[in-house]
Every structure is written in structure tokens, then in C-alpha cells.
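Reminder: ligand-aware prediction takes two inputs, not one.
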Amino acid sequence: MLTGAAGFIGFHTCQKLLDRGDTVVGIDNVNGYYDVSLKEARLARLIGHPNFTFYRADIGDRAVMADIAAGHPSIDRYINLAAQPGVRYSLEAPHEYTHANIEGHLVMLELARSNPRLRHFVYASSSSVYGANSKLPFSEEDRVDHPVSLYAATKRSGELISHCYAHLYRLPTTGLRFFTVYGPWGRPDMAAYLFAKAITAGEPIKVFNNGNLRRDFTYIDDIVNGIVAVLDRPPAVIDGIVPARLYNIGNNRSEALLDFIAELVRALGREATFEFLPMQPGDVLETYADISALARDAGYAPTTPISVGIPKFVAWFKEFHNLS
Ligand SMILES: NC(=O)c1ccc[n+]([C@@H]2O[C@H](COP(=O)([O-])OP(=O)(O)OC[C@H]3O[C@@H](n4cnc5c(N)ncnc54)[C@H](O)[C@@H]3O)[C@@H](O)[C@H]2O)c1
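Here is what comes back for the chain with nicotinamide-adenine-dinucleotide:
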């Protein structure tokens, strides 16, 4: 079962799992946080596959989720990607975050715990749990108890609740802290899409903190390879050891935001104009992933620099929006 199947990362992960012959039950409430037609277009590419079943459902709805799970007793792995994402929106709509990221996450863990066949519960966390940490690169060993946005606080809560379920019920869980994912079919509220949209419309791009931001940008195919590698490696259930793991999943490169924009401008073949703005509340200055743990345990090895990933994103963006 994969939740968030109509979302950016969920859609690509479903495609990869179906391509390799897995059977996938996809869940998504297809909410209106961003353009629903993009979610529907992703779903349209999945629905119809003989090994894909889709339910439009809210993971926070216990009864509905229990019914769906009861109808698929052979499910043995869960990938919980459904969430209310976005740092900035969490200041506007806090309850969306507690509903999907805490209550919904708990509903999924409860389903997993009551499933005797369950082998692995994989779920999405976020680099935002590192808050304003200044030690770089971010390591899973670092303290993460100073979130600077409600989004980060809900993602950290998901990690803690998962650890508790692994401890109490010996439920094998793996959390993945994603670092700024971009690529074809990407999210309209994120940098690559927002900038491409503004540049192609001839509008200024809004650049926060006067462009003085750095991000570990991770290409979607690298992320999906990491998710699938992890899925196939559940933590062992060994006496005295809690079967809970947490990994960074990034590109292991911290890029200046202005370099990322320069790649976009090059790939789009258009000029950009800028509106420089102050730092946004809840944002962090830099993210940079230490990925050695995931490399060691799952052979994770990202291969896509932004000079390769951005042109692929732009090719999709132009095709999807019928731009020349
Ligand atoms: N994209 C990134 O850079 C990034 C970075 C860090 C963490 N993450 C996490 O990765 C996961 C996937 O992110 P994404 O970028 O694909 O986002 P997305 O918004 O494209 O996908 C999430 C999907 O979940 C669905 N959803 C939301 N609430 C739901 C609910 N209550 N019930 C059922 N479905 C619900 C949405 O409709 C959406 O299709 C999320 O957990 C997100 O927090 C993403």
C-alpha cells in the first residue's frame, strides 16, 4: 500500500514498483493544496495498470482505511508518503498538518500493527527536522529537537511515533528524510516549478533572503531508487534492538539557490528577472545531507547533478504546459 499516490514522489514510486512487477494499492485524497489537475494527470498514468488499484481516501479516516486494508489482506508493506507538505503553508493552515502528518500517520501505523503479514513500514520524513542546525552536512546522529516550522514539528512527531511503534510492537519501520526533491511531475509550490513558471510567463521570480540560501537538491529518480532499495531491506527484528531506522536521502551536495536558478535559465533559454525578498519565517538557510548511512545500508548512490536533472525537469515542464 502506498499513500500519496497522486503526489509527486508517490506517483514516481508507484511507477517504479509497477515497472518491476509489484502490485500496488494506491491511496490519495487528491486534495486541493495545489492544482488538482496535475494530481489527476499523474493518476491517469497509473490507473489502468493491471497491478494498480486506487482509492480516493483520507489517511486520517480510520474506518475507511480499515475497510480498504481489510479488502487487501495480502498487503505486506506500507509506504506512507501522504502528507500535508510545505513549510510556508504550515503557518497558514496548521490543522491540515496535524491531521495528515500526525493523525494520518498514526492511522497508518495502527493498520500496520494490526496486520500480521506486515514486513516493513516505510514513511516520509523531511530534512526540515534539522531546523536551524548549523553543523553541516546534516547527519542522522545530530540532535533534531529544535524545529523552526510546524511542518518540521509534525514530521519529527511522525519519526518519534514510528519509533515508539517499532519499540512497542516490533514493527519494522524506516523513515526517510527527503532533501528538496525536484524533477518531472514536480510540485507547483516548490522552487523549480515556481521559478520555471515565472520565467516562462516573463514575471519576476521571488527569491528569499536575497538569494542567500543553499539546498541539497535531489533528483526524483535518485529518490525513488532510494525508497525502493530501503523497502526491500526491512530492519531486522532482533531481541533488544528496536527495528526503527531513519535515513537522510539527499544528493550530498549543497547548491547555492542562484546556481540552481542559473541552470533553470539556461535550460529554459529565457531571461529571468528577480524580486529579492527577506528571509521567510520557518525557512532554513542551508540543507546538506550526509548520506553515508543510506549508502552503507542500502547501497544508495545518487547519480544526478542539477546540470542533468534540471534540463529533464524543464523538458517535462515545457511538454506538460505546451510551451515551445
Ligand atoms: N518533495 C520534497 O522535496 C519533500 C521533501 C521533504 C519531505 N517530503 C515528504 O515526502 C512526501 C511526499 O511529498 P511530495 O513532494 O510527493 O508531496 P505531494 O503533495 O505531491 O504528495 C502528497 C500527496 O498526499 C496526498 N495527501 C495529503 N493529505 C492526505 C490525506 N490526509 N489522505 C490521503 N492523501 C493525502 C496529497 O493529495 C498529495 O497527492 C510527503 O510526506 C512530504 O512531506 C517531500
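The radius of gyration is 19 Å. Residues 94-113 form the longest helix (20 residues). We will return to this case in the review session.
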